[in-house]
Amino acid sequence: MSLLSLILVLAVALSACGGKNNNGNAASPSASPSESSAAPSESSAPSDSPSAADDNAEVTFVFYNTEDEIKALRDNTDPGANKTPLVIYDQLKKNYPNYKINYQNWGWAEDLDSKQRAAILSGNVPDIVRGETFIPAYASEGILEPLPDDIVQMVNPNYLIKDNDGKPVAVAAEGTIFLLFYNKELLRKSGIDPETVKLDTWDDWKKVSDAITAAGKGKFFGGGVPSHPHFGGSLRFTSIVRSIGQDFGGGDKVTIDTPANIQALQFLRDMDKNLPKGVGNNPDEGPICCTLFEKEKSLAFVINGTWAARGAIANGIDLGIAPLPVGPNGKPSNTRVGFVYSAVPKASKNKEAAFNVLRTMLSKEVQSIMASQYSVAVANQEVQNDAANVYKDYPWMQEIMKLLQTNEFQPLPVFNKNNAQIWDIINSKVIARTTISNDPIDKIVKEAQVEADSALK
């Protein structure tokens, strides 16, 4: 996903093999985030000692940046640039100077998933697989090595993914939830007081957004719910629809054709009128989050992760931040976003070097820099517990840390069979179709339900 293009994606290519299919319960966090630390895993991994790996290990990382791109970040003068890949790169050089590392870029989202799976099927098994929405499916398939206990104990349980046996097998170095960001100046131009504006419900938000679009007369817009035909759309829409108690199922069931989904999809369609035509359902997320909102300052509202605040402020926006509005008779809801999970396949022949990479990413040294300089919501428990100090320049992040430490947030559901195909149906033939076409919404959900049920059989 382009909005996450500076978030680290990392994998290591080496040896061989595949995995079995199991049920899809891996999407749940390991434990209640209110616990001071995660329960120890019954890991079958090698020694937890960081020194157990060969100091001269030869590893190939499928990074989200090539080595040249990582080094170029050092000279990047964009004030909104996220240089966390460089921070991790430098720390790995310091901790393991003799590692022979070859960095390569395998892309993101569906491209990354397909390339990692192709590598596994070909016998070129990565030592570390990476990804956001599809890693729970890897966990469900039983192909991931349980994490060593020291890694599990190091992080907030919200940042872990379990396999079907209840063992943590994947971990994210950072992650957040969605918020509603708005440009106060555009509200003022539209005759709305940004200091007293009410944005608690869908109706509240729609009234304000409609008024801004009307006042803008084609020069600026209120903004709505993105309907990108990929996980950029489903992540945001799921956060919205969950507020009225709806989800898309998971495991052996997919739920598309429901009254609540129809209601939420109608809201999605109505709000799309407050975006320039074709922007909300554009495969590229950049025009909304970066061009219109941050640079041109012609979009009043955007749903995004906490990283959006840094870019907006760097571009001189008088920024307002609110929780996501809730639907009729609903309650606050959200979805994990930006949780880029790392995991070591069971077939890896270089497990300890791979786990040392994870230890470096999750270390207090690296995570403190990521948090204090780039305002990302990091996983390390020690850093989270010191949020008032670490995030002293980012007050909104202190609130996010409280939420992550006291609430359990879910990723998107995982389906037992044809998970990627079912999500493609939801993304393209439900969410995006709702704004691309004028087809009746009840027809959209009925047809998609039939297709998804067939894929799940």
Assign the structural class, choosing from mainly alpha, mainly beta, alpha/beta, alpha+beta, or little secondary structure: alpha+beta
Structural domain tally: 2
Strand order of the largest sheet: 1-4-12-6-5
Q: Please tell me the CATH architecture of the largest domain by its name.
A: 3-Layer(aba) Sandwich
Rg over C-alpha atoms, rounded to the nearest angstrom: 22 Å
Quickly list its features.
457 residues; alpha+beta; D-Maltodextrin-Binding Protein, domain 2; 18 helices; globular; disordered N terminus; palmitate; signal; Bact_solute-bd_prot1; Extracellular solute-binding protein; lipoprotein
Describe the 3D structure.
By secondary structure, this protein is an alpha+beta fold. It has two domains: 244 residues, D-Maltodextrin-Binding Protein, domain 2 (3-Layer(aba) Sandwich); 193 residues, D-Maltodextrin-Binding Protein, domain 2 (3-Layer(aba) Sandwich), CATH 3.40.190.10. The chain contains 18 helices and twelve strands. A five-stranded antiparallel sheet has the order 1-4-12-6-5, with helices on both faces. Strands 10-7-11 form a three-stranded antiparallel sheet. The radius of gyration is 22 Å and the shape is globular. The N terminus is likely disordered. Pfam families: SBP_bac_1 (PF01547). This is Extracellular solute-binding protein.
